[in-house]
Amino acid sequence: MRRMSRLTGLIAGIALLGTAVSTAQRVEGGVAQLDSGWSLPNGAGPTQHIRLRGDQSVPPRHARHARLDPIWVVDGGDAFGRVSTYWTGWEGNGGDRAEYWLLGVYKSGPQQVGAKVGDSWSGFSIFRGRMWNEQYLSFQRRRVELSLYVANAPMPGLSSSPTPTTNLANFDSDSATPGIQIDKNIYSTVTLTWATGSAVAFRNLIPGNPRVVELDSYVYDTLPSPHQDVVYLRGVLRINGVQVQTSGDSSATWNAFDTTVNRGLGSVGNTFTIDLSPYNVGDIVTVEVIAYFVHEAWYRNDYVLGSRTVVAATLTQQFEVIPEPASLIALGTGLVSLLALRRRRK
């Protein structure tokens, strides 16, 4: 029988780990006030992009107000419901003529905030705009725009899969025959050294986040994830389908707003002694080394939301328990000699 030694799970593993969850992500806002001159070009949601647009020739000594309260994440997100929210604003008149507030901050610069499905923000000035004409006689044009965009948080994966190894071939007693044969007359035990091999993990950045720079005008920023992610490479050894040993872990961490894309995961493994005494000549023993990729998903840098474990690669090897052919010949020759000697003595 031909013993097998194969590596499986690489292609499927990379495809699985490198595929982001493609789900709609949307926010929605309650329209607390929307005076004339203000509009919501994309509506109040559910939408991926809320725009609050102000543009009017305001009458003398008048103000035009608009605000959304509350705002909440409706759906979407990664496998754990995590999203990135990007809050930006612009005003074109200076001073108190055109004003906006984002998350309670007056004329705030861009703010990226990590969130998850079900999160909400409330308050008088979480998403608020004001156009004011301080003149007593003339109408004055005022312009201001607020933007809130939501994107899925990126999921870590593997850009290069591990390649598990063992030293099982070192115990092959019959190199002339395909596969691995281990002579139990030579080896009563096999000291197996096994390892997962190293890998490269990635966490992509978030492209295409609109930032308002003028009325109806946007540039698109690439942003890091606002959440922490920790990944592990872990190994398991199985003999004839039974798990007999695990390795330690190698790990990599992305903190919230970490701009690094690739991180290395070192090889992990262990040493295990296979006792051959329970096996009979002709038995086939299957050895498997399974490399697992474990992802621990955090909410911002605060707490763990959950984890997932997938198989990154599997090495399957088999060996046959034998007495070496030379040993059998020697044994047979010895028996014949003993029988002949016994007959002569008789």
SSE layout and pairings?
Elements: E1 5-8, H1 10-17, E2 26-34, E3 38-39, E4 49-58, E5 63-75, E6 82-91, E7 98-102, E8 105-106, E9 111-116, E10 120-121, E11 127-132, E12 140-152, E13 157-160, E14 165-166, E15 180-183, E16 189-195, E17 199-202, E18 206-214, E19 217-223, E20 229-239, E21 242-254, E22 262-265, E23 269-275, E24 284-299, E25 303-322, H2 325-345
Parallel strand pairs: 15-25
Antiparallel strand pairs: 1-25, 2-5, 3-4, 4-12, 5-10, 5-11, 6-9, 6-12, 7-8, 7-11, 13-17, 14-16, 16-23, 17-22, 18-19, 20-21, 20-24, 24-25
- How would you sum up the major sheet? 6 strands, mixed
Radius of gyration, CA atoms, in whole angstroms = 34 Å
Order of helices and strands: EHEEEEEEEEEEEEEEEEEEEEEEEEH
Shape: rod-shaped
- The level of helicity is under 10%
Number of helices: 2
Number of strands: 25
Count of domain modules = 2
Low-confidence stretches: 8-16, 18-22, 327-333
Residue share in β-strands: over 45%
Class computed from helices, strands and strand pairing: mainly beta
